[in-house]
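DM between two lab members

TW: hey, do you still have the COKA1 protein entry open?
JB: yeah, one sec
JB: this one, 296 aa:
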Amino acid sequence: GLSQYSSDPRTEWDLSAYSTREQVLEAVRNLRYKGGNTFTGLALTHVLEQNLKADAGARLEAEKLVILLTDGKSQDDANLAAQTLKNLGIEIFAIGVKNADEAELKQVASEPLELTVYNVLDFPLLSSLVGRLTQVLCTRIKERSNKENTGSTVKDTPVNAGPQLSPTDLKISAVTSKSMHLTWSPPLRPPKKYRIVYYPSKGGIPKEVVVDGAVSSLQLSNLTSHTEYLVSVFPVYDTVVGDGLRGVTSTLPLSSPRSLRVSELSHNSIRLSWKASQGATHYLVLCSTAPDGAED
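TW: and the structure you got?
JB:
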């Protein structure tokens, strides 16, 4: 599967889209480059939310690998998003080109870094990594599969998550200019915890809150007024992440002062009064002389 990103990640094709090597190579040849910003944290969150799901072709029993290819420093918190993936057992390989930040690549990538971090000076040099990277990826998959197949224990995860592992009925209420309240119905099998990810729909730094699996509501605060937010709620189990709930809502605009009145005029002063604006801590009052010929 492959996703491109700038300020808005875009899935080019899912894991289940193609079944042969030739089909994948043809898709790569037809790929159009997406220029723009470098919101790597948002892209990693997109991969978790959209691409590593059963309906996108991800199999619960398969090893999960993410290969990040970037030519710049992230404009949001890539480390937080990467840590979320790694905590779920997803291995990240980081490949930098040109202006990539090597320190950031090492933060994002999984251990051991000598196998998961690569950096080249320009795009044509990426071809020099293919052989080694292919070998490392295949070896890592075999190692991890062997570890999990050792012993007689079996993962307690169903093939299809469905309502057993996924919450339902996300409701967003009590929306103000800087907050909103989330509630949802828990799945049949209680999760270990929930991950709540939210960010402005027009691009912005994703923020994340983790709550206990017994909780089914949350107050989001310190939001930006008059802004549309995307909200996702993911149930996290020991060995799998259930399907997420998603919602969209906009915070209210800041309230305005009303009923401006002018009184007590003199040759060099006036008194202004108005109805208060809810939540305002200060007011900025601007005045200027009217242009010639205009009404005073």
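TW: got it. Residues 151-161 have pLDDT under 50 and may be disordered. The longest helix spans residues 130-149.
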